[in-house]
Design a protein that fits this description.
heterotrimer, A mainly alpha (233), B mainly alpha (215), C mainly alpha (1061), B: 215 residues, two-stranded antiparallel sheet, 6 helices, extended, C: 1061 residues, six-stranded parallel beta sheet, two-stranded antiparallel ribbon, 40 helices
């Protein structure tokens, strides 16, 4: 039987045409074709540069939209009540406090709290201090907390199943981990570690990176051809 | 107690709250997490508005049409408005225009970066690593890279029984590539542990030790 | 919900109809009566208690099951039933007004043309041609076909489930009035076609609702002795069958519209037949006792008892149902006048919806005769062009008037039953009763009607003997002429008028009858009747919880009250009959002319009339003779149609069923249609509607399991099966996993081994800060820098003073514990050189963190002392610039590079302002000078490394540009990627410096701490990190050993068990 014909979606066609044309212009600007006249390449390059600039601004706006959406979600949870309302309240309150403190700091309302400020230093010190005390501290602690779970996971790796790959994995892990330590008694481990990182690990990483690049290229080509899935949905 | 000391104590308390997760999920941990999320969102909003949106508007939109960059400046704003439609399911299709714009330009940048920054340099690096002075390492590097790529290849031959099997050379190469990948992931795992170790010691030094007497 | 179903779909048909073969899809092609083949006889598709209503008939209609119609001759029939068409006097009216009950007198009775192609049985009976019942007739096809469908009958169509479910495409709930309107939907078009100034505005329907199908059915043309197939309408071009066929073609699904003959109430009085005139002009003439419902002790027709369904002996009289009135020999009618239509059911008041539908010009003659003189004038002006097709066909095909065709015994094997007929019955949702203004428990319902109640599975009650009296009156009535034996069919030949006696009780016992716990000797209440009929009591006001919408939306469980209207003794019935008689006019223009014309017009929302309370006790139900109980019109073959092919399955009277068939019948009646499919939430068909319900698979043991053994699955198939099994297992495990997850907080206690590991690691990490006794690690390679370190040193040394250097803080607070040290040593070096760091970041938190770090760094006295600039703190925008955050990842990096090389607007947008939105103080020269120094990239992840390695390169459009360089400093997690890019891009990437070790080396070699405390702190951290790595390695190694031992033990125990086995 013949496969059913795909219905042409005009909106998808427009989106694909827009994205494809923009991608081609940008690509030609980034990698000018020698066959083209210099002037055209220059125009394409300038236009490509402008498009990239616009995309960065759009990215910033998208981040703002995302943050506002986060606020909306938590405000919605607040209105619904329940056990999660407290946490949503904390989230929203923290965000509002950060913004308020920052604005107040920028307005010079918190000078009494500031540590010694040098002349000409206009940095929002209170806001930065608050960030260091809250965000940096919590994020660092979270990253540090990861250590215990990584170790415990590696400890239990072969609990359910013992395979050769598991052993190879653990052995490599131990070499790289313990070889990091400059112990005189374990000097050979450092040598092995360096070789492992330089040769097999580098080979594997190259393969993975090349694979990632190929994947990116494939997705990009699909994008250029208008075959990206996002245009059909 | 000045602001610095207050921040030190607060940071230490928050750190302990996060570490309390080692004893299990608890209220203090959740409170710290949500506090962090809110603070991060606030700071991201501040940075985005102060360093991206406002400067762009000042550069392009101030002055209206008298500004030569006004039209250019309006483009991201309009696209941002289109992206705002993505919030609404009914109007999300209009937001696809903004997504198409970002995808088109961003995709081209990624393509060019992947080709010029990764594919060609890494391939060239593999070739250059295979030198007479470094035959073994170069060979291993070359074989490892190729076999790793082969491992991600799903080419095969369909047998009469219906099974799709890879030819023996491909299968062997994939097996070797799997070994390289396992070694790579093992090493990466160890490196991540080292990063976590370093970060944890940094937390001790920067957050907890200052609170000790005489610290 | 049925009201959301498509219009005129078979699914909208009640189950009992579909089981009986009444389908929309199965209508044969239009054919004249003369051209009609003999085999696909017109049959009675509606079977109440007969086999036709049972699903097993359709499925197991084997020749053994099919019983020829001759079997019916074992029953006693009243004379009027036995009367052949030839025996009926040609000019004899159906019934005189004196003999009709009041409610019947209000309704004109028109004769119909019998079909006597074979001279068999039901052709002579006043039964409508159910085969030609156009259940699928769309409303527009009835535009002119039922011009007189009027005021008094509109309500009869209300509540039909198939109508309600199909009539309103907008899914509007239909009230009774709406249904009545819908039942007259063919009038919708007529309002636009021809105005009817003589029509009276129809009143709001107050009468009970009667399903249109039944209404039409009851108004089927009666057999005319002289004209076996008289024209059903004045239009000579279309037979009634053709009209119905046309309707069925127009819309497959409209069930009730086919009975357009019901509209005789609106026919002009000038064309009213004699018998009808007699009826209408003598409304107060005496009626037989058996028809007098008020007469105590007078037997009334109990259709439950008649047809063996629920036949409680009702003491009080009940009016004769109109179908019985119609059964009287019709008055002979001239062939040119078309078929006269029985309209004795036009008890429902007119409705505005229907009033305009019958344009005078479109009214057939037979209708015109029934129309009052006031409305006859416009009819006289009617032209043939204005007559609808069906009416034209009526005229021409008068002989093919819809009458019961000879019920040739046609047996259909089970294999011949079309699949669609078998399959569609379960899909019909259980119907809900329709509201009725009359007491449903006091109505006489023929069993073919009773069968319309899907739940009428109550055992048949014994026919009361009291009905014998009633029956004895029947032969004396003119509408029930005695049949001549010679004209009787075989199965009726044995039935002699004088031998009519109470119907013989079924030979086979009916054990289920004993289950009735209802006193049949008293008038049954509505609930009891409903219970008997096993149907909801929505029509009864005693069910207030029933939503009006429900009661009017989907119901096949109509009562006879709804069919026949109010009883003559009840006020409601009187008013209804008054209405029917006082308004024999054509309906006026529709009140909503803007409505779209056509059969599928949207029915206007109208308030549903409140159900009339049943006149409890006012009317008693008479006993029924046994012959009525066992006589069913459905004894005619039940049509089973597949496209144009139609066969008839002969039904068998209940009494003649064998025990086995009776049991099957009871079982079939107990069959309940499946509930509406529920959307599965799990499984591969999750969130997919209308999936087949999961039925338990009954695997019968087979003595030859070879069929299973022959199944050969390839490896690929086996793998696919395994994949599917895994998926399903995952699905199955999900609820359990979610439950476990939900309980996790309560039982979230750290495991012992995890607790031990945590404690050990904590001790190892904290101990170096408490004591120096366990400092096992030496200095991290401080003797000589590595090549990467040396390259970085060289690059840093090459940065001239005052050189702006791009520094990418590609890490946030998460990596601050590791990369802050690297960034400090690099920034310290830059500041020492007098360079001006220009900081960017694709991470907003990274940019903010960089600002805070530099702010702290620039104010630190120790740092300033190391930089030889005591009391000269580092100032933003002077000594360093924290630029904006770079959104869009790789595109952000690219934009910075473009700004560096292209300047202009790009440079302005990137370097004009800093993170605070203030002027950065960077000039175009400073931006261009960024090309001359390597950029310092502090990357936390591999993606950060890749982004900068890929994008931080000079634009290809510029020639002769020295490629920019990167001093790469990465976290340990990005070590492999950083080294890979560094090895592949040696001309671009300098370094890399990785993690704390390189930071310590850098610091030790190039920036030795001035204070011993700082040096000690640096060493303690290094010792802590080293010891922690060692302990972590040991723990992991221990785990590996333990698990290996455990695995070996498992393997050994498994081998031992295998050996034992």
């Amino acid at each position: 039987m013949r496969a059913p014909r795909r219905r042409v979606n005009i909106a998808a066609v427009i989106l694909a045409a827009l994205a494809t044309s923009l991608a081609l212009i940008t690509l030609l600007g980034l990698a000018p074709v020698p066959a083209l006249p210099e002037s055209i390449n220059g125009i394409l390059s300038q236009f490509s540069t402008l498009l990239i600039r616009l995309v960065t601004v759009v990215g910033g706006i998208a981040v703002i939209i995302g943050v506002l959406n986060l606020f909306a979600v938590h405000i919605g949870k607040l209105q619904k009540g329940g056990s999660s309302a407290l946490y949503s309240f904390v989230t929203v309150l923290a965000a509002v406090l950060v913004v308020v403190v920052h604005l107040a700091d920028r307005a010079g309302l918190l000078k009494a709290l500031e540590p010694g400020r040098a002349t000409g230093d206009t940095s929002p010190l209170v806001s930065l201090t608050l960030m260091d005390a809250v965000q940096v501290a919590i994020e660092s602690a979270l990253a540090g907390l990861l250590l215990f779970f990584l170790v415990y996971a590696a400890y239990r790796l072969m609990r359910r199943r013992v395979t050769g790959w598991n052993i190879l994995f653990i052995m490599t892990l131990l070499i790289v981990l313990v070889g990091y330590i400059p112990l005189s008694t374990l000097g050979f481990l450092t040598t092995i570690r360096d070789w492992v990182l330089r040769v097999p690990v580098s080979a594997g990483t190259r393969g993975i990176l090349i694979g990632v690049a190929l994947g990116t290229l494939t997705v990009g080509v699909r994008l250029l051809l208008g075959q990206d899935r996002s245009f059909r949905e | 107690m000045n602001l610095q000391n207050v921040s030190l104590v607060a940071a230490a308390i928050l750190t302990v709250m996060v570490f309390s997760y080692l004893l299990g999920d608890n209220f203090l941990y959740r409170l710290a997490i949500h506090l962090f999320v809110g603070a991060a969102a606030g700071y991201i909003l501040i940075v985005s508005v102060e360093s991206v949106l406002i400067p762009w508007m000042q550069l392009t939109l101030i002055g209206g049409f008298s500004n030569p960059n006004f039209v250019i400046g309006m483009v991201p704003i309009l696209i941002g408005v289109l992206l705002l439609f993505k919030v609404s399911p009914r109007l999300s299709r209009f937001g696809n225009l903004g997504v198409a714009f970002v995808l088109g330009v961003g995709g081209a940048v990624a393509i060019w970066g992947a080709v010029a920054g990764t594919l060609l340099p890494l391939a060239d690096g593999v070739a250059r690593a295979f030198t007479p002075a470094n035959v073994v390492d170069g060979f291993v590097l070359l074989v490892g890279t190729i076999c790793t790529l082969v491992y991600f290849t799903y080419l095969g031959v369909r047998r009469p029984s219906g099974e799709v099997a890879q030819p023996l050379p491909v299968k062997f190469a994939a097996l070797v590539g799997q070994g390289f990948i396992v070694v790579t992931l093992g090493a990466t795992y160890a490196l991540v542990i080292l990063s976590a170790l370093t970060i944890f010691t940094g937390v001790i030094v920067n957050r907890l030790l200052p609170l000790r007497p005489g610290g | 919900m049925a009201d959301k179903r498509p219009l005129f779909d078979d699914e909208d048909l009640p189950e009992w109809l579909k089981k009986a073969g009444i389908t929309f899809a199965g209508k044969p092609a239009p054919e004249t009566d003369s051209a009609r083949p003999e085999a696909p006889r017109s049959v009675l598709p509606v079977s109440s208690g007969g086999t036709g209503a049972l699903p097993w008939v359709n499925e197991t209609s084997t020749p053994e099951v099919s019983i020829p119609s001759g079997a019916a001759d074992q029953f006693d029939f009243p004379d009027w039933m036995n009367a052949p068409e030839a025996a009926a006097p040609p000019s004899e009216p159906i019934a005189s007004a004196d003999e009709l009950p009041p409610w019947m007198r209000e309704s004109p009775v028109s004769p119909t043309a019998p079909t006597s192609t074979s001279g068999v049985d039901f052709d002579d009976l006043p039964m409508p041609d159910f085969d030609n019942l156009d259940w699928s007739a769309p409303a527009d096809s009835n535009t002119a076909s039922a011009p007189s469908m009027g005021s008094t009958t509109s309500g009869m169509t209300a509540g039909l489930p198939w109508r309600q479910g199909a009539s309103d495409p907008a899914d509007e709930p239909l009230g009774a009035a709406e249904s009545a309107d819908d039942g007259l939907s063919w009038f919708a078009d007529q309002k636009d076609e021809a105005a009817a100034p003589t029509f009276e505005p129809p009143p709001e329907p107050e009468a009970p609702q009667v399903p249109r199908g039944l209404k039409n059915l009851l108004n089927k043309p009666l057999p005319t002795p002289e004209a076996p197939r008289p024209p059903a309408a004045s239009d000579p071009n279309l037979t009634f069958e053709q009209w119905e066929q046309r309707e069925s073609q127009k819309a497959a699904g409209e069930t009730a519209d086919s009975f357009a003959a019901l509209n005789v109430m609106d026919a002009p009085a000038a064309s009213e037949p004699d018998w009808l005139s007699a009826v209408t002009e003598t409304p107060n003439q005496p009626v037989p006792d058996w028809l007098n419902a008020d007469a105590p002790g007078t037997p009334a027709l109990d259709f439950d008892a008649m047809f063996g369904e629920n036949a409680p002996p009702l003491p009080d009289a009940e009016p004769l149902p109109d179908w019985l009135n119609a059964a009287a020999p019709p008055k002979p009618q001239p062939p040119s006048s078309g078929t006269r239509v029985l309209s004795d059911l036009d008890l429902i008041p007119d409705r505005s919806e229907t009033s305009d539908s019958a344009a005078p010009a479109e009214i057939p003659d037979w209708l015109q005769q029934m129309t009052p003189a006031a409305s006859s004038a416009p009819i006289e002006t009617a032209t043939t062009a204005n007559v609808d097709d069906w009416l034209r066909d009526f005229t021409s095909e008068a002989p093919t008037a819809p009458v019961s065709e000879p019920s040739t015994p046609a047996t259909v094997a089970s294999g011949e039953v079309p699949d669609w007929l078998r399959d569609m019955s379960p899909s019909v949702p259980p119907s809900t009763p329709i509201p009725s203004a009359a007491a449903p428990d006091q109505l006489d319902i023929p069993d073919w009607m009773r069968d319309m109640a899907p739940a009428a599975s109550t055992p048949i009650a014994e026919p009361p003997q009291a009905l014998d009296d009633w029956f004895s009156d029947l032969p004396q009535t003119p509408e029930a002429p005695a049949a001549e034996p010679g004209a009787l069919p075989d199965w009726l030949s044995g039935v002699q008028p004088g031998t009519l006696s109470p119907a013989p009780k079924p030979a086979a016992p009916q054990p289920s009858r004993a289950n009735l716990d209802i006193d049949l000797s008293r008038p049954l209440a509505s609930s009891e009747i409903d219970a008997l009929m096993n149907m909801p009591i929505s029509a009864s006001p005693a069910a207030p919880e029933k939503k009006p919408v429900d009661s009017s939306s989907t119901s096949l469980d109509f009562d006879l009250d709804e069919l026949l209207g109010p009883l003559p003794t009840t006020p409601a019935a009187e008013s209804t009959s008054d209405t029917s008689l006082s308004r024999p006019t054509f309906p006026t223009a529709r009140p909503t002319p803007t409505e779209p014309s056509g059969p599928l017009r949207k029915i206007p929302t109208a308030p549903k009339p409140a159900p009339v309370a049943p006149p409890s006790g006012a009317i008693s139900t008479p006993d029924l003779p046994d012959f009525v109980a066992d006589l069913r019109p459905t004894d005619a073959p039940v049509p089973l149609s597949v496209g144009p092919i139609r066969v008839g399955v002969q039904e068998v009277p209940l009494a003649q069923l064998t025990d086995q068939l009776r049991q099957l019948r009871e079982r079939a009646r107990e069959f309940k249609p499946p509930e509406p499919t529920q959307v599965s939430t799990t499984g591969p068909l999750a969130e997919i509607k209308d999936t087949l319900a999961v039925e338990p698979i009954i695997v019968q043991s087979s003595s030859q399991p070879a069929t299973v053994a022959t199944v050969i699955a390839g490896d690929l198939q086996a793998r696919r099966v395994k994949i599917i099994q895994n998926l399903l297992e995952l699905e199955d495990d999900q609820p359990a996993a979610e439950t476990t997850k939900a309980k996790a907080p309560a039982s979230a206690r750290p495991k012992l081994d995890r607790l031990l590991i945590t404690i050990v690691l904590l001790l190892a990490l904290i101990a170096p800060f408490l004591t120096d006794a366990i400092n096992l690690m030496g200095a991290p390679g401080t003797s000589s820098p590595t090549a990467a370190q040396a390259a970085v040193f060289a690059a840093m040394d090459g940065i001239p003073a005052g050189q702006p250097v791009l520094v990418a803080f590609e890490y946030g607070p998460t990596g601050s514990g590791e990369l802050d040290d690297l960034s400090r040593v690099l920034l310290r070096d830059l500041f020492k050189k007098g360079a001006k760091p220009v900081i960017v970041s694709t991470n907003p938190s990274g940019a903010m963190h960089a600002e805070g770090l530099l702010s702290t760094f620039g104010r630190s006295s120790d740092e300033l002392t190391a930089l030889n600039r005591v009391d000269k703190p580092l100032l933003p925008r002077t000594d360093y610039v924290v630029l904006r955050y770079l959104p869009a990842g790789a595109a952000g990096v690219r934009s910075v590079v473009n700004a560096m090389y292209f300047g202009g607007f790009e440079a302005q947008s990137s370097f004009l302002t800093d993170i605070e939105g203030q002027a950065s103080g960077l000039s175009d020269t400073d931006v261009k000078r960024l090309q001359g120094a390597p950029a310092v990239v502090l990357a936390e992840t591999a993606d950060d490394v890749r982004n900068w390695a890929e994008q931080f390169r000079a634009p290809a459009s510029l020639s002769g540009i020295t490629p920019p360089k990167i001093i790469l400093a990465a976290a340990a997690a990005a070590d492999a990627t950083a080294h890979t890019y560094s090895a592949s891009l040696p001309a671009v990437i300098i370094g890399p410096l990785v993690g704390l070790r390189d930071a310590t080396v850098y610091r030790t070699l190039r920036q030795p701490p001035a204070k011993a405390a700082d040096a000690k702190a640096l060493d303690q951290r290094w010792q802590s990190t080293g010891l922690g790595a060692l302990v972590a390695g040991l723990i992991i190694f221990l785990g590996m050993i333990l698990n290996l031992i455990r695995a070996l033990r498992r393997r050994g125990s498994g081998a031992t068990q295998g050996a034992r086995r």
